[in-house]
């Protein structure tokens, strides 16, 4: 699986910043977010570029690279990030074993490292919960200097569409609400795959609002 857990003080973070593709990797675009960079980064990874090469191309070809943050994980688990030198707020990034974190407008430069360490230390959890644990750790380490108002969880597995694509927008404590949404969604995720691939195998779930 490839996935991204993310939270910010701005609205609609899940629509702008995280990008994943099954069997290929993950890309984030942050600070003065260039949404165009997400699909470009995934295409570079699809072509066989490493995470480092992908981040380098994104930073070298962007029209305002000094104001951007990019990060990537490739199919080999290699990770890389870029933080532009013109970013005026406190920012940092940290790459770990098959994971990477970047942040801006953060309370201290240790926030991304705390997220990576939490992800690495939670290998006993399912993948989605490792990502959520990393977000929680980043917030506990100081988070952003402003209250976060949106959060998202995006995961690709085997199919061409996301296995998980959950978002909380413009809410107090969106990371808490995101975890509640994940807890509700988890038992249904495989059903939504089956209804695409083998719909005749499905049976109605009694009293479930998810029978669609």
Automatic annotation (TrEMBL):
> Which InterPro entries does the protein's record reference?
DUF1028, Ntn_hydrolases_N
The protein's superkingdom reads Bacteria
Concerning SUPFAM superfamilies, the annotation shows: N-terminal nucleophile aminohydrolases (Ntn hydrolases)
Family annotation (Pfam families): DUF1028 (PF06267)
Residues folding into a coiled coil are none
* Name the record gives this protein: DUF1028 domain-containing protein
């Amino acid at each position: 699986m490839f996935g991204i857990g993310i939270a910010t003080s701005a609205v609609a973070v899940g629509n702008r910043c995280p990008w994943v593709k099954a069997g290929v990797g993950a890309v984030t675009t942050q600070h003065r977010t260039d949404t165009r960079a997400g699909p470009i980064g995934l295409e570079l990874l699809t072509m066989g570029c490493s995470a480092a090469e992908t981040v380098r191309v994104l930073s070298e070809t962007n029209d305002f690279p000094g104001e951007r943050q990019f990060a990537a994980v490739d199919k080999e688990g290699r990770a890389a990030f870029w933080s532009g030198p013109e970013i005026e707020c406190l920012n940092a990034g940290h790459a770990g074993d098959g994971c990477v974190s970047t942040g801006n407008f953060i309370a201290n430069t240790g926030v991304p490292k705390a997220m990576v360490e939490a992800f690495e230390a939670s290998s006993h959890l399912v993948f989605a919960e490792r990502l959520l644990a990393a977000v929680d750790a980043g917030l506990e380490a100081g988070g952003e200097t402003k209250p976060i108002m949106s959060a998202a969880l995006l995961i690709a597995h085997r199919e061409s569409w996301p296995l998980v694509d959950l978002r909380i927008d413009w809410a107090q404590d969106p990371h808490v609400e995101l975890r509640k949404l994940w807890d509700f969604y988890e038992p249904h995720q495989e059903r939504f795959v089956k209804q695409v691939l083998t719909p005749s195998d499905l049976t109605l779930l009694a009293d479930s609002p998810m029978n669609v």
